[in-house]
Specification:
The chain has a single domain, classed as Orthogonal Bundle (MetI-like fold), CATH 1.10.3720. It is built from nine helices and no strands. The radius of gyration is 21 Å and the shape is flat. Keywords: Amino-acid transport, Cell membrane, Membrane, Transmembrane, Transmembrane helix, Transport. Belongs to the binding-protein-dependent transport system permease family. HisMQ subfamily. GO terms for molecular function: transmembrane transporter activity.
């Protein structure tokens, strides 16, 4: 118990910053990157899905390449390449670079989730909508997508939770996320157990909290049916 107290209240730098505040700063970065990447990744995912399902090769080919490359390489490599090579000449802070990298990564996976959800909707729904005079765009936005969202919600929730845990690699570019905060405390206090278990406990609480909220939301959707 004393080790955990020392982790939270012992100054760990010349500026007098205590471990607890550093962990809170790291947690704020983790949540910011996770929520922002989920939002922008969803936009990229929808765009990539529409491009892949457009039937036009000049739209489908770039989307296939994007999804294939991103899903075929580790996120930590994507993050490092983006920050140290692609954005090296630009004045982009580490948090913004992390948001961009994780948005691009998440977008590829969300694209496949959305595509699977759309294909799971009975084709007769689209045919019926078109027979009633709806355009292809109207059919997609008012008939197909609302049904697809219900089907893919669990997978989207899982992607959010996976993304939350994947942000632990932000430290590779020097960003101070939750995991990096624990590493800094560990290196300065020479205490391994307390900071690492504290970070693990926070990740666990966040994961279970978001899983619980997602489950409640799914139940509400089923009741509305």
């Amino acid at each position: 118990m004393q080790a955990f107290i020392d982790t939270l209240f012992t100054p760990i730098g010349s500026d007098g910053l205590i471990g607890g505040l550093l962990i809170l700063e790291g947690l704020k970065t983790t949540l910011l990157v996770t929520f922002a990447a989920t939002l922008f990744g969803s936009i990229l995912g929808v765009a990539a899905t529409l491009m892949k399902m457009s039937g036009k090769w000049y739209l489908k080919w770039p989307a296939d390449l994007y999804v294939g490359v991103i899903r075929g390489t580790p996120v930590v490599i994507q993050l490092v390449i983006l920050y140290f090579i692609i954005l090296a000449s630009l004045d982009v802070d580490k948090v913004s670079a992390a948001i961009i990298a994780f948005s691009i990564n998440s977008g590829a996976y969300i694209s496949e989730i959305i595509r699977a959800g759309i294909q799971a909707v009975d084709k007769g729904q689209a045919e019926a909508a078109r027979s009633l005079g709806l355009s292809a765009a109207q059919t997609m936005t008012t008939v197909i997508m609302p049904q697809a969202v219900r089907k893919i919600l669990p997978a989207l929730g899982n992607e959010f939770i996976v993304l939350l845990k994947e942000t632990a690699v932000i430290g590779f570019i020097g960003g101070v996320d939750l995991m990096r905060a624990g590493e800094i405390i560990r290196s300065r206090t020479f205490e391994d157990v307390a900071p690492l278990l504290t970070c693990a406990a926070i990740y666990l609480v966040l994961t279970y909290t978001f899983t619980f909220l997602l489950t409640r939301f799914e139940k509400r959707l089923k009741q509305s049916d």
